[in-house]
Amino acid sequence: MKEISELILPDDLRYAEDHEWARVEGDRVRVGLDDYAQDQLGDIVFVELPQPGDTFEKGQEFATVESVKAVVECYLPVSGEIVAVNKQLEDSPELMNESSYGDGWMVEVNPKDLSEMDTLMTSTENLERLKGAE
Amino acid sequence: MRYLPHTNEDIASMLQAVGVKDLDALFSTVPEDCRLNGDLDLPGPLSEWELNHHMETLSSMMAVGPEYKVYIGAGSYEHFIPASVSYLLGRSEFVTSYTPYQPEMSQGTLQAIYEYQTLITRLLGMEVATASHYDGATALAESLLMAIRSTKRTKVAVSSLIHPLYRRVVRTYFEPTGYEVLELPYLKEGVTDLAGLKEINDLAAVAIQSPNFFGCIEELQETAQEAHDKGALFVVSFTEAIAYGLLKNPGGQGADIVCGEGQSLGIPRAFGGPGLGILASKKKFMRSLPGRLVGQTKDLDGKRGFVLTLATREQHIRREKATSNICTNNSLCALAAAMYMASLGGTGMRELACLNHDKTEYLKAELMGAGFRISFERPTFNEFVVKFPPSFEDTYNRLLEKGIVAGLPLAPYYPELADHYLLCVTEIISREDMDTLVREVKS
Amino acid sequence: MKELLGTKGLLLNEPLLWEKGKKGRRGFSLPPRDVGSFPVEKELAGEGPDFPDLSEIDVVRHYTRLSQWNFGVDTGMYPLGSCTMKYNPKTNEKQAGLPGLSGGHPLLPASLSQGGLRLMFELEKHLAEITGMDATTLQPAAGAHGDLTGMLLIHAFHKSKGAQRSKIIIPDTAHGTNPASAVLCGYKPVPVSSNEKGILSVEAISQVVDEDTAGIMITNPNTLGLFEENITEIARMVHSKGGLVYCDGANLNAVMGVVKMGEIGVDVMHLNLHKTFSTPHGGGGPGSGPVCVKNHLEPFLPAPRVVEEGGRYVLSEDYPESVGKVLAFYGNFGVMVKAYSYILSMGPENLKKASQLAVLNANYVKEKLKGTLHLPYDRPCMHECVFSDKYQMTNKVATLDMAKRLMDYGFHPPTVYFPLVVHGAIMVEPTETESMEDLDQFIEAFKAVAKEAQEDPDLLYEAPRNCKVRRLDETTAARKPCLAG
Which of B158, B351, C131, C282 is deepest in the core (most CB within 10 A)? Predict the structure, then answer.
């Protein structure tokens, strides 16, 4: 497993308590799992995603991610409607390990209130709390 | 005691290593008020010789062949088990191992269960099968819960010709859940009446047994269509696995989940247990399956090997969110079934099934010839219902004394079927036995 | 250390069943066909299953070779914590194979099945005596099934009182089957943490228990191998709120003849005949999970039940409040025969002795290994002890690596990564049937592995070397499942 200093936490993303990341892309917000979460889980073997059209409040469970011997529930960092899911994860869940901020994204949301982004942690804040938890 | 290897010297030196004065002192963390005062009130110890004598006495108080001819099936069938199967099954590497959590040390169990899963999918025409469940009844209950999970609906329709005891287990499992079980009546021909289905909406599953409790072969294809039209999963249950050596398999007729009892496949009846719960499904429901699954993979050197897989469905990982609370399977019974199916082969399975079918038809024909009425006209496999005259109970009891159990009275299960008996014939019943039975019931 | 137990065995390769055989071979002798042919209607007949045709020797060699890739209690020490892998006496197998006991039809009239009914009646009584409870059902087929039955009983009890409740308290050390079973009965599991001593405190329970609590599920001794010292007080508190106490009896092997659960506040508990009562695990079943109850839960037990009427035994269905049935017939009778035979062979003194020696063996291993492995709860243990990989992790060697390396030394590894409250847990349950020499050999092996962890971690990362296969790719198995050939 990675040392805290080895973690990649890009500055242009916002981070939620349970290690989901969020990035504004036009009028959508793209969501995935951060480097810390994918590293802790190890090899990801299965991802259960919602259907486009489903709506969730901020903090509601929207997906589960499985490694060989663990399951984590993922909570949507901003409220809104799911407008796209990453179909590639169906056959290649390893993308979440290999490219957690790129091809390993999970869903795109049409956000109800974009200002919810401001309640999420910045990269620095995320790193600080990880250090604190150590 | 021969199972306890410690000598007094061992105990003394181990107590010293632990730092306590005697065996009682090991329990210092058990509060005084939790301790048992006095001794357990139990018999024994018996020497092995005494035990043999006692157990033989109990064994002799059970009616079994060859002295007794038992024409009861109803979910528990007497089939011939080759010596090679019993012998192999007794190998202690299989018998005395645990669940294969450490795959490198349990490839024997794992490959054997993978082969079992494969043979079951081929027998039933399905794509995946679990490593086994407790019995046919719990496999049905788990299948219905699985359908409820998959469809996110809360009602199931269950044929009244599913084994009555299986339906009781389903009701027990469902009672605290709030899910609803509706029963489909049966037609006078001896198969499930589907007419009522039209009225019911939001069904998670339609469940049918074939051959059903009366031995009759159900119209699976038609039922599958009806179920699918309603957006429900089609669940097929069975109690006699040998039937699929001869009959069309349920997978080929539209079943989404097939579940049943595999005791027929090389497992002795043992007064009802252990049996073998079989559960198979289409691949798309794989991640909703309850219970264990074995999968094929490779080791570090690229050599083929087997592991327990998709474990994230299970209770030891997902705890309260698991697909089931099931932990163990009935591994050794699954192994027996695999050995039995391997010994029969495809050719043998076919021949055996035909023999069972034909012997039953022989008895049916002889009983009809003797003037008895076969209650249901639909084709049957190795069981059928016959109506005897109202005075038959005396004959039945007289036959018990002669070592013949002339079927299962159906009235306790179907009150409307007084004087109806469910008879079963397998390959171990000879023509001579059947001729005797017919002669006796006639007199 | 003398000669290593682990070595290279004579392990032969063996293909899959369907990679062998030829059409037309047979391994089965069918009884003669003495009736004519009655063809089945064309539209009903299928083609028959696509099974390989094998000769008898093909089948015998196949399974003999497979069996040799397996490790069992008969092969060597199998210290799986929480699993009680004790010796499975051979006479039990013989008794279960007696023609009457292995061949009886479950729906025989009572007059023709007195032997089986009497055996069940007596076994129920014996198990009630051992646990200090009032009545027993033998119907549940396994431990988890016993859990479920226990929850069904609690559910039925509250329903009969006219007010269902919604919560079940479950400690963080519990087996996963506990919360999974509670949920099947519609209950919401409420987790509660154990204290710094590794056991439940009265305070922790007092904070979660209320009038909506249906009950508590306590494993005693718990999965850290520690006796729940506060059980009587906890039981009193749960009872005072109208809740019931369920005891997961997976660890009964520590306290037979020492503690009667019925006398310390337990209302209902399940046992594992395949753990405590020496019946073999069979590579994962069949087990048997009887449930014992106090009088107030007896009316709810699954039906039918065996009753004695003037020296004769019959099955009675006359239990209007029964939860119903949890298995088609009466339970795993074949397993019951073995447990019954074990209890009679042991007698009361030896059952107590078995528990004492099980606890002695665990404490012995704990004392001998505690410098080598980190011991998170350094207290007297019951029948098992839990270590962790804390010391070895400084060299980046984890529990799993040590477990795999133990295989090369000829031992089945202990239970690993459970209970979840200990990071990198190593849970050792030697059982009473291991001798001091065997324990010493295991202790030496573990010390050698720990030494290697310090000096040459690669040996551990690459372990096992001497098994039929090396470490298996579980990731690909789960990503691209191949569940049938």
Answer: C282
